[in-house]
Design goal:
Number of helices of chain A: 8
Oligomer: homodimer
CATH architecture of the largest domain in chain A: Sandwich
Structural class of chain A: alpha+beta
Strand order of the largest sheet of chain A: 1-8-3-6
Number of strands of chain A: 11
Largest sheet of chain A: 4 strands, antiparallel
Order of helices and strands of chain A: HHEEEEEEEEHHHEHHEEH
Amino acid sequence: MVVAMSETLRKTPLFFNLPPEDLSRIAGISSLRHCAKRETVFREGDRADGFYVVVSGSVKVFKLSEDGKEQVLHILEAGQSFAEATIFEGGVFPANAEALCDGDLLFLPKRPFIELLEKNPKMALRVLGSLSKWLKRMTDLVENLALRDVEARLVFFVSEEMKRRGLPLRDGAVYEIPVSKNVLASRLGTVPETFSRTLKKLQEEGKIRVKGNQIRILKAVSLFGALAR
Amino acid sequence: MVVAMSETLRKTPLFFNLPPEDLSRIAGISSLRHCAKRETVFREGDRADGFYVVVSGSVKVFKLSEDGKEQVLHILEAGQSFAEATIFEGGVFPANAEALCDGDLLFLPKRPFIELLEKNPKMALRVLGSLSKWLKRMTDLVENLALRDVEARLVFFVSEEMKRRGLPLRDGAVYEIPVSKNVLASRLGTVPETFSRTLKKLQEEGKIRVKGNQIRILKAVSLFGALAR
DNA sequence: CGTAGGGTTGAGGTTAATCAAGTATGGTGG
DNA sequence: CCACCATACTTGATTAACCTCAACCCTACG
């Protein structure tokens, strides 16, 4: 059991390359939690006494407005951790999390984890790096939502995800949407209708070809051209 | 010199309540930098080999779109630190920073600072807390930009800032806009015209009274009522 | 075969950006 | 001290992106 957990932990960026004894120490304090599709992992405002690592399945983290509109902040898949930040501050979750499909989560409780960090500066630095990454991602998200239109946000998102998966950004490459288009629309800060129309428009312009959840890149240059960075 | 710096450091959340020897160690590795109004502190993409603490004056951190539109992410005043995150990751600044008025900044170089952290888990934990706060703030920013209209964003911003300054959210209280209305508009994800109109509308509804940079709260209940949290 | 959930399409409305022009305001040099 | 200019801010009219609502399609699945 503890061994299997270590195995998962080893693959998460947060703990990547940590010596085995550290990993088993972490595994020692953590617990496994199974989540069914649509199950709530936590709600905004809940006491946060730990954070999570996705072992299998996928999870969305989102904010709700008063009238129930939702903005997806993150979509998480196996090996990714989330809500690390909350345990160093505040004590309540600043957003909601829900399982998108059946899967397992590792729960890392706050107190023991902080004690581990206090004794292990190297690990603390690792966690600092992870938080920094999240911060960078959120900065990008703000930029995208505020400064670009839906089409640009979609294109940017796809290019980032393809990079993350090691797919080349060239003609013929295929990006498979890992979640329902509804969820992706919300992550892009829009609604399913607009999302659908945007895909259609790009297809009519011959830049992509959409089949189900597969997006085939047809004109990488004109698609990604504007993203010079 | 080093003593004066310690004095500033002592007041920043990042280093609040740290023992004097830690403070002077930090002061020892940091350097003072004067910035004139409008001076660029750093640009997006610049190599990031350190972060900053505002000693005096104020600074805006912002993103630019291709066509030059700007989204202000943060407005920083004396005692606040910024860009801490970048030193644990990446190595380039993910946004731009510019002085809003003449002032002094403390520069904390990356390498020496990290070495300090490695030897001082307590300080590392403090930095973790700080990054967590930033993450929380960005989460709120995303929520605001994506889920609320301009009026709600304005009201939320004012209420948060008043809380931060210890002002009571009640009738008669006065919030003084610390920067140009242009900058605030951009921080709220809108343009000066819309910002101006929104203030006007709230004034016509008798909820606030605007005089120059002063906003007097007239109907706290109906203004802040929707922000039940 | 029927229903439910996800997805698409069309029509219409709304928010807020843009464009254009006018009004303070504050600093500078004459 | 005043004239001038730049900058900040305001106001009005127009426009565009995108949200909403409503209907419909499609596929999976009991």
